[in-house]
Amino acid sequence: MNTKVVPVEMLPCPFCGVTPDIETWHGGKPTKHMVSCVNDECSCAPQCAGQTRTEAIARWNIRTASPAPQERRVVQRRSKTDNELAELYARRDLDANLEAALAAGKEKAE
């Protein structure tokens, strides 16, 4: 029987963007394969196994659409900065209101 192996593209890690690795996995039958993120600095280090190489890759590639890791970081930074700015403005406004109230109180006392 002549079978042709068709290469299947693996998507990058959804958390860090690094190309994953696939290896034979002996967590059961020796025919299992595992796809895993090989980046030591990945925040999640996901893994996925399948009975065949193709099944493992297919399971790895199933995911919801998400922004690229760099885009996520920019959005998170922007959100954090926006929150920090909102806090600063709120403090500034509170300080201005407090100063105005203190000035009004001094005027009444005089």
Description:
Helix content is 45%, strand content 11%. The protein has a 3-stranded antiparallel sheet with strand order 1-2-3, covered by helices on one side. The protein folds into 2 domains: 21-61, no CATH class; 67-110. The protein has 2 helices and 3 strands; from the N terminus they run βββαα. It is mainly alpha-helical. The model is unreliable at 1-5 (pLDDT under 50).
Question: Keyphrases for this structure?
Answer:
110 residues, mainly alpha, 2 domains, 3-stranded antiparallel β-sheet, rod-shaped
Name the helix and strand elements from N-terminus to C-terminus, one letter apiece. Answer: EEEHH
How do the strands of the widest beta sheet line up side by side?
A: 1-2-3
Fraction of residues in helix = 40-55%
Mean pLDDT metric: 75
Overall tally of structural domains: 2
End-to-end Cα distance: 104 Å
Helix-strand makeup class: mainly alpha
Low-confidence stretches: 1-5
The dominant shape is rod-shaped
In percent terms, what proportion of residues is strand? 5-15%
Whole-number radius of gyration?
27 Å
